[in-house]
Task: inverse folding
């Protein structure tokens, strides 16, 4: 019995082993056939520049858009090349243009907004591709000939142009339709437009006295912790904070490495050798100063003692004759070779030309910098000692402290939508991927993240002290302004008021025929001030009017209203401008919602 049970169990064991073996064999064979390994590839290793929601932006798509933008910039400027930093800036701008376009396209797809084949064919027939519009083969009598264009619609030689044009139409037009639909807001009423026009164009004559409360130097005495806490409880909303975060930032600049300087020096030596034989040819072949390259590198006349001339060049000029080629000189912006074109008879002035060769950060150097960051990143995600690890790699660490996420600006970084998107998704303690910036790479660690709200007293204690002091000065300031108003009402000239109160800096002014759009020196909270002017009676001093950081006394001397007839004449011009302003404001707000709907993961730091 026992043996029979063992044999039955043994059969099951054999079957289990056999199934496991076959499964293992199949996986091994599959792995070998497919050249598969169990290490999951990263998106950037598959040529993905970024993920926008579920959309994967490829290197090919991104690079094609960048090259197109650079080519268009070169054509507009009529130059052959751009400085490296400008190309980097174009790459960054194109990236975010693509990200925005992709988000809107995904929204269009979500709502089924797309072009059918018939519509695309009609558009192609009615609106020729830009490449064909620029092609002089389609010109007749110096102008584009539409009939010549119709003859090639089915010509296979132009198929690649039409295919690319069709893709662009299918991509761009649904986006524009979606934007138009989403910004289609109710038309602003004529009455609302009139009130706005009236507010912006009514002119006033007025005088004012402005007191900023912090100009009062008195401070409260006998301030206890209990009083501060009581003030905090009564004024909690004053201490409300927006969403905030705290980061460690490791920032590594894309600086040239030693190999780049050596490579540039070899180029400089070749340029110097040719410059001594053929200056103009050397300028055209080597100089990177686009402002002077087409003019033989000429810089113009300089006084020999000109403070703008570097000391190295001044020293070399002292013994140089006309025609001398000097240098090379190494400066922060690169290598400079200088030629003396002419000297005046007194020797006080000299006309110079130059060849500028910058030391560029090579692709290999950027790769070396990235590789070191990748190694750092792999370790940083496993250790709690982020700062110690950064020091081990020779990286500087900056701490942002708590900063507002609502401002869109990150300390030590600047505005960066990709990093802000990561902060919103990340948990405290997480380390970011490599973040690409035109001039540097960075890695961040999220130390703290807080939602909007009123922080506990202990966290905003210093803010409470400042507000308590400001409130004390506000009460004293309003009392002072009542005193000043009494003097003004009794006939004291407004210009003499500052001299009567030398311990407090008061802003005073008198203006004629000024509208709310004009700049007025000394006005703070201008919108509030002009709203007061619209309400107060003319002829008497009014106030004090309290605003966030100060108070106003206002005298409206006269008001020049605008004509309704003038508004009616301009109405048709004002209407589209008003619609555009409303639409742009809406799109700006909705773009932030799109960022949450289709979050961005930026992998440029691993590729470029």
Result:
């Amino acid at each position: 019995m026992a043996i029979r049970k063992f044999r039955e169990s043994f059969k099951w064991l054999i079957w289990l082993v056999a199934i496991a073996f076959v499964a293992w064999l199949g996986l091994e064979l599959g792995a070998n056939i497919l050249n598969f390994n169990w290490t999951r590839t990263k998106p950037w290793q598959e040529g993905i520049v970024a993920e926008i929601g579920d959309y994967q932006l490829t290197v090919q798509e991104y690079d094609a858009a960048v090259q197109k933008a650079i080519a268009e910039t070169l054509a507009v400027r009529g130059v052959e090349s751009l400085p490296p930093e400008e190309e980097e800036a174009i790459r960054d701008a194109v990236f975010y243009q693509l990200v925005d376009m992709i988000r809107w396209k995904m929204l269009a797809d979500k709502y089924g907004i797309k072009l059918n084949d018939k519509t695309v064919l009609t558009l192609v027939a009615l609106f020729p591709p830009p490449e064909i519009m620029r092609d002089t083969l389609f010109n007749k009598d110096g102008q584009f000939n539409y009939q010549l264009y119709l003859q090639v619609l089915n010509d296979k030689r132009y198929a690649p142009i039409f295919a690319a044009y069709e893709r662009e139409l299918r991509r761009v037009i649904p986006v524009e339709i979606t934007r138009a639909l989403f910004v289609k807001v109710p038309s602003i009423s004529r009455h609302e437009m009139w009130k706005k026009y009236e507010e912006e164009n009514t002119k006033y004559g007025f005088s004012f006295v402005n007191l900023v409360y912090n100009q009062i130097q008195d401070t409260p005495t006998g301030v206890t912790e209990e009083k501060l806490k009581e003030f905090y409880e009564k004024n909690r909303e004053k201490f409300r904070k927006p969403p905030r975060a705290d980061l460690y930032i490791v920032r590594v600049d894309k600086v040239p490495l030693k190999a780049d300087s050596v490579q540039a020096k070899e180029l400089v030596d070749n340029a110097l050798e040719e410059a001594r034989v053929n200056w103009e040819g050397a300028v055209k072949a080597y100089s990177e100063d686009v402002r002077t390259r087409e003019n033989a590198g000429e810089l113009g006349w300089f006084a020999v003692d000109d403070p703008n001339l570097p000391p190295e060049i001044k020293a070399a000029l002292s013994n140089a004759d006309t025609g001398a080629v000097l240098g090379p000189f190494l400066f922060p912006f690169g290598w400079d070779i200088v030629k003396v074109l002419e000297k005046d008879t007194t020797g006080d002035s000299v006309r110079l030309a130059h060849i500028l060769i910058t030391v560029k950060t090579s692709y290999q150097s950027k790769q070396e910098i990235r590789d070191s960051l990748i190694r750092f990143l792999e370790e940083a995600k496993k250790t709690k000692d982020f700062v110690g690890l950064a020091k081990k790699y020779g990286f500087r660490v900056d701490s942002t402290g708590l900063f507002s996420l609502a401002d869109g600006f990150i300390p030590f970084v600047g505005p960066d939508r990709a990093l802000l998107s990561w902060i919103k998704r990340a948990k405290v303690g997480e380390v970011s991927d490599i973040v690409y910036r035109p001039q540097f790479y960075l890695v961040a660690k999220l130390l703290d993240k807080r939602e909007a709200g009123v922080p506990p007293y202990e966290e905003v204690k210093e803010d409470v002290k400042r507000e308590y002091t400001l409130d004390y000065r506000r009460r004293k300031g309003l009392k002072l302004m009542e005193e000043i108003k009494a003097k003004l009402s009794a006939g004291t000239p407004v210009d003499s008021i500052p001299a009567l109160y030398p311990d407090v800096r008061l802003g005073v002014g008198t203006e004629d025929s000024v509208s709310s759009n004009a700049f007025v020196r000394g006005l703070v909270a201008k919108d509030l001030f002009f709203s007061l002017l619209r309400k107060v009676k003319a002829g008497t001093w009014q106030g004090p009017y309290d605003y966030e950081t100060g108070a106003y006394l206002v005298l409206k001397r006269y008001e020049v209203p605008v004509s309704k007839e003038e508004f009616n004449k301009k109405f048709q011009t004002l209407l589209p401008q008003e619609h555009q302003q409303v639409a742009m404001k809406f799109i700006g707000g909705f773009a932030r919602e799109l960022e949450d709907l289709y979050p961005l993961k930026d992998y440029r730091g691993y590729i470029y």
About this structure: The CA atoms of residues 200 and 518 lie 9 Å apart. The longest strand covers residues 440-450.
